[in-house]
Amino acid sequence: MQNSVIKAWLDSSYLSGANQSYLEQLYENFLLHPAAVDASWHEIFKELSGTGVNPDQLHSKIREYCRCFAQNSARHTSLVNYSDINSKQMQVLQLITAFRLRGHQNATLDPLKLWQKAIVPDLHPAFHDLTEADFQKRFNVGSFAIGRTTMQLGELYGALKKTYCGVIGTEYMHLTNLDEQRLIQRHMESVVGQPSFSGEEKRRFLSELTAAEEIERYLGAKFPAAKRFSLEGGDALIPLLKEIVRYAGSNGTREIVLGMAHRGRLNVLVNVLGKKPQDLVDEFSAKYTGHLRAGDVKYHQGFSSDLLTEGGMVNVVMAFNPSHLEIVSPVIMGSVRARIDRLREGRSNMVLPITLHGDVAISGQGVVQETLNMSKARGYDVGGTVRIIINNQIGFTTSNRYDARSTQYCTDIGKMVEAPIFHVNADDPEAVVFVTRVALHFRNTFKRDVMIDLVCYRRHGHHEADKPSATQPLMYQKINKHPTPRTIYAARLEREGIITLADASEMIHVFRSALDCGDCVVQEWRQMKKRSLTAWSRYNHNHARDEGCPIQIDSKHLQALSQRISKVPHSVHLHPKVKKLYQNRASMAMGTKPFDWGGAETLAYATLLDEGIPVRLSGQDTIRGTFFHRHAVVYHQKNGSSYTPLDHVRKGQGSFHIWNSVLSEEAVLAFEYGYATASPRALVIWEAQFGDFANSAQVVIDQFISSGEAKWGQMCGLVMLLPHGYEGHGPEHSSARLERYLQLCSGRNMQVCIPSTPAQFYHMLRRQALKNMRRPLIVMSPKSLLRHPLAVSSLDELANGSFHLIISEVDDLNLPGVKRVVMCSGKVYYDLLNKRRKNRQKDVAILRVEQLYPFPVQAVREALIPYAHIQDFVWCQEEHKNQGAWYCSQHHFRQVISKGATLTYAGRPASATPAAGYISVHQIQQKNLVNDALNVN
């Protein structure tokens, strides 16, 4: 602001805060048509912009200057002088800005007309000192995109109301990118709120509304008492989704991944994805025998189909979704990101994510905020998601928005990521299709999230047996008298001469006949090719064979890989501690130092990358490692640039992606689950900062990770690394809640491991990636063992070993002299070993169970053969008695010990909290449990 021209500009008496909108509009005109701006303003704007500056940045600067004017307006209040400015012209431009900014508040969005429109003073010309006499005058309309530079005020006012206060309410002025604003302005203002469609298109929209209505009537008649979560009232969702498929196919999209909750799901399955009505009827009748799994209710089921569009074939996938409504959103994003990474198409539009939300759910559930927050983060960006809200204005039992949220719209949360929001009256299918096209154009152009708020109603209760009129009498009096969307639109087309009443009746007859036949009713549906199944075809779930051992790696090649990933270019100036860490890893590669945890872990990744297997690892502080142990990426200390050794294993290697996640567990873990389901060949890992942080993501663990295969046949090889171990850090940083995972285990649904050496960790990761089975792997990973002097492994153990389900005694004990066998898992083993060696005890053997589920019965029995004479067995754990493995696994322990032997518990007493908060109490408890296990008085 030191430039003399700018200073003089700021000091001008007419630059009061009231003129901000005028100045912004004037500047926009300058950017579009510089020559059309007065010479004096031209010079000021030219000086402000300089050369080679992005117009968006310039506009942001102008806004900043205008805010300065507003702040300093007090000193101009008594000096306002409009001698150099046409004040009426300025006020007209302010009126345009007011409609763009707040017109949605006066739009006719509610089909039931129950909404009380807000009083918005600045939408009235009088607010801007524009009188009836001015209505006949012509004014410059700036960038109002209707193809003219001037209009009579009366005509302009009418056009503004049609554009911004009709059946579409558009919120986009919160966008800071000028190009994004202009794109929406051009679309909205060029049609003046009245989009044009051909007669063929209109008949198609009516046909789609007919299908939406008739499937609900059909199911309601056949199964009147069954839950179906009807779409009735929001029927326009069907033409909306079908338009997305058409538009996407014509604009290069080849895959659509769709996530939605219950409302309208069955309708979408039949009328969009092409599920056979007969299959749905069989599910209602409990006749469906397509699988032998535990299964799930019909309105949680997913589906996949190929749909033919004018632009080519589009594969559409509807994800499985439990009743925890919004949790599917990050799952969808993860699945899409995996597809994008697999296609290596970067920011193309080949894959499109769509999520459907309820009005109360999107504003009420925290995972929505988490999902939006990570939508543009590097590790989670999917190029924008189309988010559709089925806004039935009532949610579950909420009577009005004042009980459901604290904002005017349920979509206000979208403003946190500057998503444009299109509110549309669902009784107008043409408006719905129009905003769908605009939304998709915006998403494809700017790779950003966009929201469509489909304002509708719910003709029945939450489900069909519900009686909503008991609590919503006025709303349901309106609904009972309100004609259906199909009826309204059919009458409209009849008035326009597009169809006759007989045509509308014939559409109903044709669709009902198709339903009665039971075959697919979607003309675009095509028999799916096998391409979508090939990614999973190599993975079998034969329980007898899923313990397969990966092929070992030649020690010289393994050493070469280790050396390769231990080298950092000399040009990278490392932090002293990181430099020391990499020097140690170089020594490990040379064989002069044993491998620690971080060295073995990164080497495991290197071996997989060398075999062309992709690796993805994410979590909070994961790149460095919470405990300063990983450093998979190193940073130049002088310029901040980064170097990733694992990107340099070999040419043509598998892709390596490691990300520090946003501060979220629920959304991020759900994202990684979705990623793993769509990328079976990749090793996908989510690491908690501390193991108990996964508590915030329990719904993902319960409803997807542990049960997805049993409910839906959804295979997944996701790895969860959960730092676990009692180090005296209090209740929140000790336990990863091992007991919760063991409680969820059944039918070999997942694996729970507690590796105790770097070699075990190395082989466990390789086993997960290389065996022909994909099930989740839950790992109680270490903290203090990352640098424990005994928790090390040799190069030979990595090269020639394998993952041991149980590790036998390591010390040379006189077997006849052994009187007790202690079984344990994890860090406590080293406490027991140190104490026993310190005491020089020879009568207690210690065995480590490295995999608690599936419990390795045969392997443990074989390990206990030398101790067949022992009658005294102890299970030792650090966790409290009501936690850890004791309650969930003791039946396995009793199954493998000698006949007639006793099994006792050594550990902390039962507790309501995971760990003591006082270090002194922790130390006493730790000492006691070790002494109890070793039978030390």
UniProtKB/TrEMBL annotation:
Q: Entry's InterPro entries?
A: 2-oxogl_dehyd_N (IPR032106), 2oxoglutarate_DH_E1 (IPR011603), DH_E1 (IPR001017), KGD_C_sf (IPR042179), ODO-1/KGD_C (IPR031717), THDP-binding (IPR029061), Transketolase-like_Pyr-bd (IPR005475)
Q: Name one GO molecular function term.
A: thiamine pyrophosphate binding
Cross-referenced CDD domains: TPP_E1_OGDC_like
Write down the superkingdom of origin.
Bacteria
Boundaries of every Transketolase-like pyrimidine-binding domain copy = 595-788
Q: Keywords assigned by UniProt?
A: Oxidoreductase, Thiamine pyrophosphate
Q: Name one Pfam family in it.
A: OxoGdeHyase_C
Q: What is its EC number?
A: 1.2.4.2
Q: What is its cofactor?
A: thiamine diphosphate
GO biological process terms held by the UniProt record: tricarboxylic acid cycle
GO-annotated cellular components: cytosol; oxoglutarate dehydrogenase complex
NCBIfam families xref list: 2oxo_dh_E1, PRK09404.1, PRK12270.1
- Function (record text): E1 component of the 2-oxoglutarate dehydrogenase (OGDH) complex which catalyzes the decarboxylation of 2-oxoglutarate, the first step in the conversion of 2-oxoglutarate to succinyl-CoA and CO(2).
Which family is this protein grouped under? Belongs to the alpha-ketoglutarate dehydrogenase family.
| Name this polypeptide is given | 2-oxoglutarate dehydrogenase E1 component
